[in-house]
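User: Hi! I have a protein structure encoded as tokens and I'd like to know what sequence might fold into it. I'm fairly new to this, so please keep things simple.
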């Protein structure tokens, strides 16, 4: 497995996937310190993202979006049909 392949597979690992390519990536990182460092950096970012606070969307957000979409589709001019020769 190349370093590029291993680094691509690391993202599957972080997503909780455990297929063969993830196992191969683990073997690769055990013998490649550059990829091991990359994996540790990815895990650190993942850990920090998990600790971020989650904010609830405003209660009326869905309604406002649906109204905006409806207004946009009503204002859109009808498409002209293509002219046949
Ligand atoms: Zn590598």
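Assistant: Happy to help. Inverse folding works backwards from shape to sequence: for each of the 85 positions I chose a residue that suits the local structure. Here it is:
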């Amino acid at each position: 497995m190349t370093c590029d392949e291993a680094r691509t597979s690391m993202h599957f690992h972080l997503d909780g996937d455990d297929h063969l390519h993830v196992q191969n990536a683990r073997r690769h990182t055990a013998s490649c310190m550059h990829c091991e460092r990359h994996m540790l950096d990815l895990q650190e970012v993942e850990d920090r993202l998990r600790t971020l606070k989650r904010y609830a969307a405003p209660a009326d957000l869905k309604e406002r979006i649906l109204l905006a979409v409806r207004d946009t589709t009503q204002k859109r001019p009808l498409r002209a049909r293509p002219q046949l020769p």
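A useful reference point when you look it over: The helical segments are 3-14, 20-31, 33-51, 61-75. Feel free to ask if any position seems puzzling.
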